[in-house]
Design brief:
- The protein is α/β, with parallel strands linked by helices and about 220 residues long.
- It has 8 helices and 14 strands.
- The strands form 4 sheets. A 5-stranded parallel β-sheet has the order 2-1-3-6-7, with helices on both faces. The protein has a 4-stranded antiparallel β-sheet with strand order 8-9-10-11, covered by helices on one side.
- The protein is elongated, with a radius of gyration of 20 Å.
Amino acid sequence: MLVVEDDIRLGNALSKALQRQGYEVLRAVSAAEALEAPDVDLMLLDLGLPDGDGLDICRQLRRNGVDVAIIAVTARGEERDRVMGLRCGADDYLVKPYSLTELGARIEAVMRRARPRPKPILDIGDLRLDLAAREVTRAGEPIVLARKEFALLACLAQTPGAVVPRERLIMDVWGTTWQGVGRTLDVHMATLRKKLGEPVLIETVRGVGYRLVRSAP
């Protein structure tokens, strides 16, 4: 990931926070450095740079066919500014000030969109998800799930055995970073466990999120 931010203190603090979350982070403090930086998967791009507008960087990268996800970060919060940023090639637009929780959720969402589409059918032990048909079976028996229950299970099933943070589940299923949805998430997860018929299939990792464990084949 490349953090493009001309405020040295802010850029360094942000880089350290992202590194603590497991990201490899490079730094740039100007438009020129951003354009000359090594290839990365994602660019966190401040639009107010001393030697040029970040929107010009977006345009140039897209004209050159550079395959990088871009999150534009700026204090410009008007609708016309957000629309312009997206039209210039940004994948997302984040208005200052923002929380690290929201930034992390947006990074994950942008990177998921940039990855190849998942397999249409997922098999985890005796659990099968047909993502296209939105159908679930366990040991060949159909399980009827509500829309958000299916979305939660699909999110967990993309990386079986790995912990999916609560913030990511809330962003993916409810499309928000508002933590007030947390109680609703827990209620839906409890119902999903009951419908799957084996509560231990979905494990709670306290203070972090949930994990789908493999059921017996």
